[in-house]
């Protein structure tokens, strides 16, 4: 059974779980009946590093154990690079998506395809309060991974952010989708 | 409609669909998001129920006991020490024959504190006279909650729906949310055997004597022991009732399985791994792997733990050489509780298989698929000597 | 306030059958019998274990004519909450819910559930009958047993701690109605329960209940003993309505100088064998405390 | 006949007298009302009834004259103690037996 394993790194309160959930919903809708998304088990404290595991498969997934060797890693906050071993286990040739002002070239040391976007600025441009980055990072992830269709994702963003500036969140994802830089 | 949500939300939606009227709960990890969801649904007006934010789990079940006695469909949920704090009330609810439904997001028990998953909490409530149903994924959680209300009200015995804390409670998975219309046709409105009211006065559950005694009509009323017998009889009867409930559910919702013991690749198996909860699904991956190596093994998940479906267990394990029981609970100083139950159930089999026992995953200790396949493979090796002592998987002592 | 009830207009209908298992001369029996007259038919009762459990009858015969659920010792407040929740869910608002518990079931093991219910403002009447000990299990000390009382688990030295002031704890919850009553003043009790029924939210009624075997006096003296507790100023009858304290009935009369003066506490102590080991210095000390408390009352 | 015939499966009590049996047998002394002293009996009007009010077991009627149900009266003596007219006397039960009373 082939499983695509995606690990999302963020901080408590940043919305990594919501981002992963939106991607999970869109993936389920586009032909991945096997979806398991597991947040860090335990007490989540605002600001502390957390990660969320998302497994996708064409078949039902039965193994709930955490991801050890992710195919893709998404990092919501550049500062996490100094705090957590975000690339731990990342498969050679995998995908690494990062919210940063840097270009992918700055991360040549990572043995993976690197995609970057300045989600923090994009979010503000989209009319979101500073620091709301989880919708933007989805756009970058969708662009870099090509796993799911951005318009389908936009629909799930609207649903998930109902009552919480859904249009601005969609805009952030769209802008990020357009502006994501993908390294070689 | 399929949605992707946590196991706790699946449970909450089941409670909403079943139209519980009184919900009382006290926060405890990892159950909390379930009752948070219910309070949200109730405050939004999407669920017509009374949410009672009590000051303890003991009171949570007390509220449900009194509400159920007064003719309302009552629900509560808890985990670990919260469940243990309810213990007195858990016995009481069953003894009073109240159709309460409770979800248990399974968690290890202190001391020392742990918030992570094992089954020690609900297993330790085994002998309270509640039905215990274990779910292996989110679909089973929401469906079990709906079935639980129907069954509980049919047999006047409370039902516990147990699912793994975090592994299921906090993990997002797709599942189908049944239509309200169908659930309404599945569960009729609650009709209590007797609902406390001023017009038909009754004094319920007062001191009941060791021996029988005439009632005011001159008939011989029960003694305490007769009431205990009736509860036991009701529990035994519940096994067949659950089968009927499963059939009825299948007719209306188009899905269902063996409600007692859910078997995977067991038809031709020489060995069967038995477990409860999400572990039984993880073991399916292991079974697939070992099958490729030519080991004829299957995985069986206990869906019903009390009453113990001994006939179904005997049937499922009738023709195997070995049974390997993986458990997230232990009866200290002896062995895993499921292990001793299974051994007791198959004692009269003509060709008794060997039964091995592994303890694992206590307090959330990670269960690695590799470790599972190693242990299972070992046990399936025919020359493996029988041991009474359970093996411990993942122990680093 | 409504016209005070008299013996002549107290409802005739009895809600307790004769031939209960309560002790001869039981103070609770008086309070319960009159109390149920005040609650009336449309009442659902919640009772944790206590002497009342036995009084109300053993299965399958009920000595009470009202509907009642017996609940676990620690859960009266929560169980009343559950009854209320079910009634609300069924849109029934014509029924009074009352919990009737002993002092242990109230101030000791039951205080958590009671406090939770009061904090939530559950709309019910909570009656605590205070016979100052665990009488049903054979007279052990409770939180409300007074200092110096011999009980079966303070058998030699007597209780070494003061009586817990449960009504004050309940008043601190800010509930709308807190009152104290005595089995020896059943009409006052009747009126207060009636009044409580008309107030919304949590109501707390604390009844002082003389217990012949538990306190050590003759069965004929039950009413006398409760009256003595009030007339010596040891147990005061009062109401706290929306936080405002006022003495009521005989206590009010004493404070107004309309009735006799306070009787010496010595009379009360000497009348009960449970106080047999109290020495004069302790009695003098209590008398001083009472004098001080009453000085405040007399000022008002 | 087994208890199943009672048709219940819970501890469900129904209201009836004498759960504790004929508690009149508990008495060692019995209350006897002297109608010459009893206020309502003497005045032939509804009055007093202190005995009715205080009786823990509700075995005294609020009638003229008040009647005591000796089948259930436990003989506590509160009525005699509280009667403002001193109309009730507690009489030794055995004296009744000696006199061949009921």
The pLDDT mean of chain D sits at 92
- Assign a percent range to the helix content of chain A: 25-40%
Query: How large is the share of residues in beta strands of chain A?
Result: 15-25%
Unreliable segments of chain D (pLDDT under 50, ≥5 consecutive)?
Answer: none
Subunit organisation of the chains:
heterotetramer
Rg of chain D is: 18 Å
Principal-axes shape call of chain A:
globular
Number of helices of chain A: 6
Which two protein chains have the largest interface (Cβ within 8 Å of the partner's Cβ), and how many residues from each? B-C, 49 and 45 residues
Coarse structural class of chain D: alpha+beta
Layout of secondary structure:
The complex is a heterotetramer of chains A (184), B (397), C (300) and D (102).
Chain A: E1 3-11, H1 16-29, E2 34-39, E3 49-57, E4 72-75, H2 80-83, E5 94-99, E6 112-117, H3 119-125, H4 134-145, H5 150-160, H6 166-179, E7 181-182
Helix pairs in contact in A: 1-4, 1-5, 3-4, 3-6, 4-6, 5-6
Chain C: H1 27-39, E1 43-47, H2 51-55, E2 61-62, E3 67-70, H3 76-89, E4 96-102, H4 103-108, H5 111-120, E5 125-130, H6 166-171, E6 177-182, H7 186-198, E7 203-208, H8 212-216, H9 222-231, E8 238-241, E9 244-247, H10 249-255, H11 265-270, H12 280-299
Parallel strand pairs in C: 1-3, 1-4, 4-5, 5-7, 6-7
Antiparallel strand pairs in C: 6-8, 8-9
Helix pairs in contact in C: 1-7, 3-5
Chain D: E1 12-15, E2 29-33, H1 39-43, H2 50-54, H3 78-82, E3 88-92, H4 93-98
Antiparallel strand pairs in D: 2-3
Features:
heterotetramer, A: 184 residues, alpha/beta, seven-stranded mixed sheet, 7 strands, 34% helix, C: 300 residues, eight-stranded mixed sheet
Could you explain how this protein is built, in words?
The complex is a heterotetramer of chains A (184), B (397), C (300) and D (102). By secondary structure, chain B is an alpha/beta fold. Helices cover 39% and strands 20% of the residues of chain B. Chain B contains 13 helices and 18 strands. In chain B, the strands form 4 sheets. Chain B has a 7-stranded mixed sheet with strand order 3-2-4-5-7-6-15, with helices on both faces. In chain B, helix 1 (7-17) packs across helix 2 and helix 1 (7-17) runs parallel beside helix 7 (138-155). The N and C termini of chain B lie far apart (47 Å). The mean pLDDT of chain B is 96. Chain C is of the alpha/beta class. Chain C is 38% helix and 15% strand. By secondary structure, chain D is of the alpha+beta class. Chains in contact: A-B, B-C, B-D, C-D.
């Amino acid at each position: 059974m082939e499983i695509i394993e995606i690990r999302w790194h963020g901080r408590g309160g940043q919305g990594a779980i919501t981002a992963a959930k939106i991607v999970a919903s869109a993936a389920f809708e586009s032909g991945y009946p096997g979806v398991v998304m597991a947040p860090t088990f335990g007490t989540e404290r605002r600001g502390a590093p957390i990660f969320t595991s998302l497994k996708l498969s064409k078949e039902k997934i039965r193994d709930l154990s955490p991801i050890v060797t992710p195919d893709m890693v998404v990092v919501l906050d550049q500062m996490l690079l100094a705090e957590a071993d975000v690339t731990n286990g990342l498969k050679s040739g995998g995908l690494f998506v990062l919210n940063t002002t840097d270009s992918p070239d700055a991360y040549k040391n990572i043995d993976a395809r690197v995609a970057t976007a300045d989600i923090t600025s994009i979010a503000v441009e989209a009319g979101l309060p500073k620091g709301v980055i989880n919708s933007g990072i989805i756009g970058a992830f969708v662009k870099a991974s090509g796993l799911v269709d951005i318009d389908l994702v936009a629909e799930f963003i609207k649903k998930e952010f109902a009552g919480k500036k859904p249009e601005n969140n969609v805009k952030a994802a769209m802008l990020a989708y357009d502006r994501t830089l993908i390294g070689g | 409609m399929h949605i992707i949500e946590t196991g706790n939300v699946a449970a909450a939606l089941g409670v909403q669909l079943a139209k519980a009227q009184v919900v009382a709960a006290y926060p405890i990890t990892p159950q909390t998001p379930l009752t948070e969801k219910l309070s949200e649904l109730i405050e939004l007006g999407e669920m017509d129920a009374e949410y009672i934010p009590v000051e303890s789990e003991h009171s949570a079940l007390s509220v449900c006991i009194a509400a159920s006695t007064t003719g309302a469909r009552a629900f509560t949920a808890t985990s670990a020490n919260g469940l243990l704090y309810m213990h007195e009330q858990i016995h009481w609810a069953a003894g009073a024959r109240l159709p309460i439904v409770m979800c248990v997001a399974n968690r290890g028990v202190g001391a020392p504190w742990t918030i992570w998953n094992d089954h020690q909490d609900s297993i330790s409530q085994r002998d309270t006279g509640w039905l215990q149903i274990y779910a292996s994924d989110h679909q089973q959680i929401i469906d079990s909650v709906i079935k639980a209300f129907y069954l509980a009200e049919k047999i006047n015995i409370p039902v516990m729906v147990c699912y793994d804390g975090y592994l299921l409670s906090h993990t997002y998975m797709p599942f189908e949310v049944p239509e309200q219309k169908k659930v309404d046709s599945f569960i009729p409105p609650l009709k209590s055997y007797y609902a406390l009211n001023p017009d038909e006065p009754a004094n319920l559950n007062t001191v009941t004597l060791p021996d029988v005694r005439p009632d005011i009509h001159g008939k011989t009323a029960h003694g305490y022991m007769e009431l205990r017998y009736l509860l036991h009889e009701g529990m035994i009867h519940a096994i067949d009732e659950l089968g009927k409930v499963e059939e009825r559910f299948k007719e209306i919702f188009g899905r269902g399985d063996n409600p007692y013991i859910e078997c995977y690749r067991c038809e031709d198996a020489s060995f069967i791994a038995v477990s409860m909860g999400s572990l039984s699904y993880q073991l399916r991956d292991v079974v697939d792997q070992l099958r490729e190596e030519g080991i004829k093994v299957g995985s069986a998940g206990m869906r019903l733990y009390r009453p113990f479906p001994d006939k179904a267990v005997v049937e499922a394990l009738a023709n195997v050489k070995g049974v390997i029981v993986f458990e997230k609970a232990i009866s200290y100083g002896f062995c895993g509780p499921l292990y001793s139950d299974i051994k007791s159930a198959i004692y009269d089999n003509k060709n008794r298989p060997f039964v091995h026992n592994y303890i694992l995953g206590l307090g959330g200790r990670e269960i690695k698929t590799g470790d599972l396949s190693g242990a299972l493979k070992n046990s399936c090796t025919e020359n493996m000597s029988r041991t009474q002592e359970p093996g411990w998987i993942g122990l680093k002592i | 306030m409504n016209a005070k009830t008299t013996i002549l207009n107290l409802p005739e209908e009895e809600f307790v059958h004769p031939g209960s298992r309560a002790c001869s001369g039981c103070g609770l029996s008086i309070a319960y019998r009159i109390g149920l007259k005040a609650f009336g038919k449309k009442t659902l009762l919640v009772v944790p274990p206590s002497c009342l459990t036995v009084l109300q009858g053993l299965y399958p015969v009920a000595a009470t004519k009202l509907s009642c659920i017996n609940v676990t010792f620690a859960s009266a407040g929560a169980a009343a909450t559950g009854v209320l929740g079910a009634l609300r869910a069924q849109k029934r608002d014509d029924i009074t819910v009352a919990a009737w518990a002993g002092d242990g079931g109230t101030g000791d093991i039951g205080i958590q559930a009671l406090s939770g219910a009061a904090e939530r403002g559950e709309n019910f009447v909570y009656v605590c009958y205070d016979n100052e000990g665990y009488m049903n299990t054979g007279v052990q000390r409770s939180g409300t047993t007074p200092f110096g009382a011999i009980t079966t688990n303070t058998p030699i030295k007597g209780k070494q701690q003061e009586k817990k002031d449960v009504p004050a704890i309940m008043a601190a919850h800010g509930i709308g109605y807190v009152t104290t009553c005595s089995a020896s003043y059943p009409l006052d009790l009747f009126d207060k329960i009636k009044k409580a029924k008309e107030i919304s939210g949590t109501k707390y009624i604390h009844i002082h209940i003389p217990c012949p075997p538990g306190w050590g006096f003759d069965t004929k003296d039950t009413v006398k003993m409760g009256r003595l507790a009030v007339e010596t100023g040891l147990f005061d009858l009062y109401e706290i309505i929306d936080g405002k304290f006022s003495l009521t009935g005989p206590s009010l009369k004493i404070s107004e100088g309309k009735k006799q003066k306070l009787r010496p506490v010595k009379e009360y102590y000497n009348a009960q064998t449970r106080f047999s080991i109290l020495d004069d210095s302790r009695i003098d000390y209590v008398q001083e405390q009472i004098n001080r408390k009453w000085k405040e009352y007399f000022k008002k | 006949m087994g208890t199943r015939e009672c048709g219940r499966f819970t501890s469900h009590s129904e209201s009836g007298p004498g759960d504790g049996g004929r508690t009149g047998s508990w008495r060692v002394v019995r209350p006897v009302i002297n109608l010459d002293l009893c206020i309502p009996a003497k005045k032939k009007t509804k009055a007093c009834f202190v005995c009715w009010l205080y009786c823990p077991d509700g075995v005294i009627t609020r009638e003229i004259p008040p009647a005591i149900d000796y089948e259930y009266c436990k003989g506590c003596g509160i009525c005699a103690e509280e009667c403002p007219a001193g109309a009730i006397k507690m009489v030794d039960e055995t004296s009744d037996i000696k006199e061949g009373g009921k």
